[in-house]
Specification:
Length: 112
């Protein structure tokens, strides 16, 4: 059974940091391209970051470049999203994704 379980969301002040984790199971993780998406209220879901199978190719949305870092640990079947210098506009539900599979999402709220 395929599972993607996100964790690490929460409430943080502007300028703060959070690291999201996504624990994967039920498929060959090391061979899967992994992505993080987010969806803010009233907006469409958007791609935030993507990482290749071998961790040597990463892509980011323009809005998060220089502030977010995606990484993976194939030994732990886990993908991470490190977020720094958070802004109120980063507030959204963040989802882990591979192919057509999605996690349940974790809420990130940036507010003072």
């Amino acid at each position: 059974q395929v599972q993607l379980v996100e964790s690490g969301g929460g409430l943080v002040q502007p300028g703060g940091s959070l690291t999201l984790s996504c624990a994967a199971s039920g498929f060959p993780f090391s061979r899967a391209v992994m992505s993080w998406y987010r969806q803010a209220p009233g907006k469409e879901r958007e791609l935030v970051a993507r990482i290749s199978t071998s961790d040597n190719n990463r892509n980011y949305a323009d809005s998060v470049k220089g502030r977010f870092t995606i990484s993976r640990d194939n030994a732990k079947n886990t993908v991470y999203l490190q977020m720094i210098s958070l802004k109120p506009e980063d507030t959204a539900v963040y989802y882990c994704n591979t192919a057509a599979m999605w996690g349940q999402g974790t809420q990130v709220t940036v507010s003072s």
